[in-house]
Amino acid sequence: MSKPSIPKGTRDFLPLQSKRRTFIFNTVQKVFEKYGFEKVETPAMENLSTLTGKYGEEGDRLIFKVQPRGKKLESQLEQIKLGQKTDGILAEEALRYDLTVPFARMVVQHQNHISFPFKRYQIQPVWRADRPQKGRYREFYQCDIDVVGSNSLLNELEMIQITNEVFTNLNVPGVIIKLNNRKILAGIAEFIGEPDKLVDITVAIDKIDKIGIDKVLEELYQKNISEQAIKKLSSFLLLKGTNEQKLADLADLLRGVDIAEKGIFEAKFVLQKALKLGIENITLDISLARGLNYYTGAIFEVVSEHFPSSICGGGRYDDLTSIFGMPNVSGVGISFGADRIYDLMLQLNLFDNVLHSSTQVLFANFGEVEVDYCLALAAELRNYNISTEIYPDKAKLKKQYKYANDKFIPLVLAIGSDEIEKNQFTIKVMETGEQLVATPKDIVSVVKDHLTIT
After folding, report:
1. What's the predicted TM-score (pTM) here?
2. How far is residue 160's CA from residue 35's CA, in Å, rounded to a whole number?
3. At 185, which helix (H) or strand (E)?
């Protein structure tokens, strides 16, 4: 019999890991709701036609397709085997690649039941047929926020505020928010004489952090972009200095290129407002491209100096809903990669102060009579929202203490026959080993006092 295993790029999460992940989800969700975002959910599967053509050529290759079952699949496979044309594609459905495209589909499908501007958040898994590696999984959770139905740059500013607040609340150090604008990139493509190669340019420069600028320029040359254009482009990618200096340099270089001037104005607005709000960990990065085809304005990426991959990304999309028959609806959003945030926090030992167990009190089991006595006391604690469990089997006290230690349960209450006779119980504080005696009528106050201490 083969050893049990799971597909590459997926993970199991035991109680401790799940508790830590829930801490991330709850922290993120509280910030989202604080800014007025409402929760939605979409199915794990979408029609394949909904997803294809929205992520660029490379993204489309990473969509997990779901094959039909039964006679339809058998018929198509038989036709292929015989060299005949099939009456349809092998897959008609797919697992969602991200949360943004399904959200756009939802907006269009339910537009008569939505008030605009619509602010939504969504915390669900997505799937990509990627090559698994550190920080890159084939199944992972995204925590998304989007605003649709508003062109205001205040929405971009709010995305930055939320991002900054989330990582402040998670106590993650060394976080940098990168900002760019697709209009600036489109202006650069126009300036270097390659306006029709914008997609090739953005897909290539999006890889700078992974493969370096020299290989990016080599890839652009292979895309039939002229050496002169590549030389001009590289001067933009190498811009240095403060945000103000980079904006000034861009304004000088791209003067007269209308679309670039719009992008520079938008970037300047967001950067200046963020600075007034005291957000200083934001930088204008001209090499930031976000390879997804649907971005049209501001683009964001969040990195940590302690982690090799980005932990957030997003941007403005002005025409995403039009592909589903609803034109002229602008949106902006950002996606938090929960799995990468988890890995980063684990690497930096940031979960030490996170409560490890949902159980706060464990009643030791000394036998049937003693358990009957404990049941009412456990119910009383639960009535006061104190998470409580009774060890299910009669066992040596040492084994029950080990169980409490393994689950990080802070308090163990022992009530044996002697304690019942004396109308008292013993409470043990697991972290310190301290033990004291109290009476059942004081059980709630004593437990609450020691939970505060622990």
Report:
1. 0.83
2. 12
3. helix 182-191
Q: Is 407 left (phi over 0), alpha (psi -120 to 50) or beta?
A: alpha
What is d(CA 179, CA 14) in angstroms, rounded to the nearest whole number? 36
Sheet architecture: strand order including 45-47: 45-47, 93-95, 65-66
Which residues, in sequence order, are CB contacts of 218 under 8 Å at separation 6+? none
CB proximity list for 178: less than 8 A, separation 6 or greater: 282, 283, 284, 285, 288, 300, 301, 302, 303
Q: Which of the 8 DSSP states describes residue 239?
A: -
Pairing of strands 425-429, 411-414: antiparallel
pLDDT in tens, the chain (454 residues): 789 999 999 999 988 889 899 999 999 999 999 999 999 999 999 999 999 888 878 888 899 988 776 555 555 556 556 555 555 556 789 999 999 899 999 999 999 999 999 999 999 999 999 888 776 899 999 999 999 999 999 999 999 999 999 999 999 999 999 999 999 999 998 998 888 888 888 888 878 877 888 888 888 888 888 888 888 888 888 889 999 999 999 999 999 999 999 999 999 999 999 999 999 999 999 989 876 677 899 999 999 988 888 999 999 998 778 888 898 899 999 999 999 999 999 999 998 766 666 799 999 999 999 999 999 999 999 999 999 999 999 999 999 999 999 888 999 999 999 999 999 999 999 989 999 999 999 999 999 998 876 5
* Residues 414-418: contacts with CB under 8 Å, at least 24 apart: 414/364, 414/366, 415/363, 415/364, 415/366, 415/370, 415/373, 415/374, 415/377, 416/366, 416/370, 417/366, 417/369, 417/370
Measured CA distances, 31 to 52, 140, 203, 391 (Å): 32, 21, 32, 37
Q: Is 404 exposed, middle or buried (0-12, 13-18, 19+ CB in 10 A)?
A: buried
**Quick one: tokens of 433?**
């080993």
From the CB of residue 272, how many other CB atoms can be counted at a distance below 10 Å? 13
Query: Which H helix or E strand runs over 230?
Result: helix 227-237
How many whole angstroms separate alpha carbon 404 and alpha carbon 369? 22
- How far is 213 from 66, CA to CA, in rounded Å? 37
